């Protein structure tokens, strides 16, 4: 069968690599893909950008199913459009994708179904928001309602910072429409975990837990990025934590999905905060995480295609996902300047000398060479019998890779003091 993957990051390269391992699949098209998917077995990049172009292509090539990497097309309703054309697609409907596309919608859903989450207020009027800042407790968390490429959340330590955030988001409209509404939320103290999972709308099966590292610098310092590295499993996700997560978050989420008649066959990604008061849901994402996917799919033993086909057929109930008895460590190398302005166009050398999988994110192939083209450039993923072994290997291998201005964190997978519960 032929599969179409939409997206162009490290996440999509990891999906293509994993899907290519399935004996069920003969051909994978990546739209638009990147320098890594271009070289992957069974894969071909296709330069299709609009939903209309993708639909025409999927029909013409008799694509068995399409899988969507990033959130933007999902929130725009690509799944509904494919279904109108009788095309199989793995992802939530537009209505369900609002769980990521609108923070106020997600929070009201969480409240309605008793999902454990931070207290919050929603504002669509800047004066009222500014008034509220006089009486709220600090630190407080201000979130743009809509999609803001992971930059829409500001933690404010006092009223002045909070007033600035409201000014920027609501009045200056720096997120171009995403901040017409905001959510102001109780600050939670704890450690975070990413729980990717798969749903057919009737069952949700959580994947192995993982831990992202969002800030640019070691010790969780500096501005937030899309993600600088991941380990799986997440050492904070003990059995008790996962039990609480199931009871307080996963199960009531499933009830909500059913009650609201959301057409949801796809990935659901829970961003959780483990606190002294229990496990809280920070956010839903309706797609796989990047770089969580690179680590998590690396230790998935099961056939990802078979799993997705079972979800599309509504048969997840008794599906048993198998995981390698291993730890994975993914270290992300970025261009100098990221997450701010960065330069690109530099040749990447040394990948052929590595002894582990390298997933390409922002790099393209030019005359047989890989050349940087994005902020996050590549991800090195190493496995080990222990976290320590996986970390050591990942750092050993990434040292073999060079490009002008290469930067990566040196502390992926280390417990930092701040993170001690
Ligand atoms: P979100 O997009 O909602 O996951 O927020 C992005 C990041 O902001 C999270 O990964 C957390 O690090 C932080 N964050 C979000 N909400 C809260 C909260 N209520 N308390 C503390 N930190 C938060
Ligand atoms: N790495 C976090 C995300 O994909 O949202």
Automatic annotation (TrEMBL):
Residues 107-313 form the ATP-grasp domain. It comes from Clostridium colicanis DSM 13634. Its cofactor is Mn(2+). SUPFAM superfamilies: Glutathione synthetase ATP-binding domain-like, PreATP-grasp domain, Rudiment single hybrid motif. The keyword Metal-binding applies. Belongs to the GARS family. This is Phosphoribosylamine--glycine ligase. Its EC number is 6.3.4.13. The gene is purD. It comes from the Bacteria. It catalyses: 5-phospho-beta-D-ribosylamine + glycine + ATP = N(1)-(5-phospho-beta-D-ribosyl)glycinamide + ADP + phosphate + H(+). HAMAP family: GARS. The keyword ATP-binding applies. Keywords: ATP-binding, Ligase, Manganese, Metal-binding, Nucleotide-binding, Purine biosynthesis. It is an enzyme of class 6 (ligase). Pathway: Purine metabolism; IMP biosynthesis via de novo pathway; N(1)-(5-phospho-D-ribosyl)glycinamide from 5-phospho-alpha-D-ribose 1-diphosphate: step 2/2. Pfam families: GARS_A (PF01071), GARS_C (PF02843), GARS_N (PF02844). GO terms for molecular function: ATP binding; metal ion binding; phosphoribosylamine-glycine ligase activity. GO terms for biological process: 'de novo' IMP biosynthetic process; purine nucleobase biosynthetic process.
């Amino acid at each position: 069968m032929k599969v179409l993957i939409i997206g162009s990051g490290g996440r999509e390269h990891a999906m293509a690599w994993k899907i290519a391992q399935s004996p069920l699949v003969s051909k994978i098209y990546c739209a638009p893909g990147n320098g890594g998917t271009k070289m992957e077995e069974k894969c071909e990049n296709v330069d299709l950008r609009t939903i209309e172009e993708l639909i025409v292509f999927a029909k013409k090539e008799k694509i068995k199913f399409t899988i969507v990497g990033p959130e933007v097309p999902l929130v725009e309703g690509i799944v509904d459009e494919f279904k109108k054309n009788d095309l199989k697609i793995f992802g939530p409907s537009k209505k369900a994708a609002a769980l990521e596309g609108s923070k106020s919608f997600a929070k009201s859903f969480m409240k309605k179904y008793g999902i454990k989450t931070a207290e919050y207020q929603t504002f669509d009027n800047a004066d009222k928001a500014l008034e509220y800042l006089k009486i709220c407790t600090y630190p407080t968390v201000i979130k743009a309602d809509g999609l803001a490429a992971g930059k829409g959340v500001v933690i404010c330590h006092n009223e002045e910072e909070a007033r600035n955030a409201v000014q920027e988001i609501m009045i200056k409209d720096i997120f171009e429409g995403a901040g017409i509404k905001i959510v102001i939320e109780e600050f939670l103290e704890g450690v975070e975990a990413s729980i990717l999972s798969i749903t057919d709308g009737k069952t949700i099966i959580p994947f192995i837990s993982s831990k992202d590292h969002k800030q640019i610098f070691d010790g969780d310092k500096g501005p937030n990025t899309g993600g600088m590295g991941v380990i799986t499993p997440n050492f904070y996700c003990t059995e008790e934590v996962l039990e609480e997560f199931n009871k307080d978050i996963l199960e009531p989420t499933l009830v909500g999905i059913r009650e609201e008649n959301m057409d949801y066959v796809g990935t659901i990604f829970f961003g959780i905060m483990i606190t002294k008061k229990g496990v809280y849901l920070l956010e839903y994402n309706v797609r796989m995480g990047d770089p969580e996917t690179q680590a998590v799919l690396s230790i998935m033993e099961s056939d990802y295609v078979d799993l997705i086909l079972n979800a599309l057929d509504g048969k997840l109930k008794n599906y048993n996902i198998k995981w390698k008895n291993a730890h994975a460590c993914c270290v992300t190398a970025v261009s100098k300047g990221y997450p701010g302005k960065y330069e690109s166009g530099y040749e990447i050398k040394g990948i052929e000398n590595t002894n582990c999988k390298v997933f390409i994110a922002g790099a393209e192939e030019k005359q047989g060479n890989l050349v940087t083209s994005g902020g996050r450039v590549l991800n090195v993923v190493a496995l080990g019998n222990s976290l320590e072994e996986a970390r050591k290997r990942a750092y050993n291998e990434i040292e073999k890779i060079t490009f002008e201005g290469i930067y990566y964190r040196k502390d992926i997978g280390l417990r930092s003091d701040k993170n001690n519960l």
